[in-house]
Amino acid sequence: MPGPTESDPLSGGPAIPPADASTSPARIAIVGGGVTGLSTALLARRAGLEVDVYEALPHSGGLAGCFGVGSFLFDFGPHELVTDNAELLELLKELCGDDLLQVRKRSAQYFQDRFIAYPFKLADLLQKVRKRFLVRALADAAAARLRGLTRRRPPANLEEWVRGHFGDTLFDFYFGPYTRKVWGLSPSLLDARTASQRIASDSIVALAVKSLKLQLFGKEEFEETHDEQRHNFHYVRGGMGELGNAMAREFERLGGRIHLGQRLLGVELDGSGERATELRFEDGTTARDFDYLVSTISLPEFFPLVRPRSPLVASHVSRLGFRGMVFCFVGFDRPQVLDHHWVYFPGVEIPFQRVTDFGHFNAGMAPAGRTGLTFELSSNPGERFWEMPDERILELCTDELERLKLASRDEVVEWKVVRVRRAYPMQVNGYAEIVEEVLDDLSRVTNVVPLGRQGIFRYCNTDECIEMSLDVVPRMVAREQSIRFQRASTWAGVGTQS
Question: Are residues 395 and 251 part of one domain?
Fold first, then answer.
């Protein structure tokens, strides 16, 4: 479709300033067709910019896409949309219409052989958690907070942070085992900022106060992006992949171009080394004539293509690793298996760390009377679950459900195992300083814009990735150079990062 003219203006969506009429519209090449790349592409095209998206896979959507198995649809885990950002909500409603659902979340932790509501409810805790354990945990947590009053240095790693905020008992029986299970590393090797970013309450007292306010007054406190007290979230009928599909359809309707099966092989710079001028792809094709190169592919993969002679390639990039994930998608001949949307399983004796039951989402992702479950098993290439045959993965997952008296293997009607090498950035000690130095070095190429979970090596959610696009696109419209996303998302919108 040809691009619109002055008499046929682009319309719809959140208002973004048009390109300066005194200059021709900026041309943008976007590498990576996940939700960050697609939202950037759509917003830029609406602003009148010329945009091409290059995706290595034969389909767009990335990890926020949807996976079909027979007559079932699955997400790679529960990709909830949780935001009060008015601009983002306007975009979501416009793209999805009546298919944008509001869901009341029910999640749980499987701990001490019980399903414990999460966010925690006082009555539920008193009924299901062993009293001696509760008393010991509370005493440990209080002692840890008292010790913290005289501590002269900040915690050196995740283990110190959790022990200092929640005490030894909760670390030894919950946080420690769960962390090792998910990340495959000792908690002492993970950065303390991982805890402060992913554990919204900084003490057991704060968590109890929030839980009581929620139960007694219906007050949800979600100052932090990953606050567990948030009960309502948005979802998309047909799975979260439909959001990416809607973005792609609208982008192409406006004349944008998506090139599938284009794996980036190299980036050529101009003589000064300050601007990217050409992309080389694995199939021998090239792309030129762009003003900005937006990268949403993994930073450790992208950086050596742009700055191959930088000393940081050897000293820093090798230290930026990802945690892999094995997903087991299983369709059951019953309407629901769990009593919750998803359940966390911290125990090391259970192979999976989280299970999502899409039957509770009421999003039309399975035939009538059936539901699909996504099992998540953390594993990197060479590790146990990664190398295990698919049939054995299915057997482990269904055997555990049978042991928990939740479902029978005889009820399985469809299944598939998928392995993802780069699911989560590994936030090891000192990772933030490493990332900052790499991004500083990359900014020497002034028309390169890294974005998204993979692109800036930040553990962020789908809604936050779209907020990055909302922040960056107007700056490309204004033809800024060395654009860096420097802000952190909150439930209320995008706030300045401290």
Answer: no
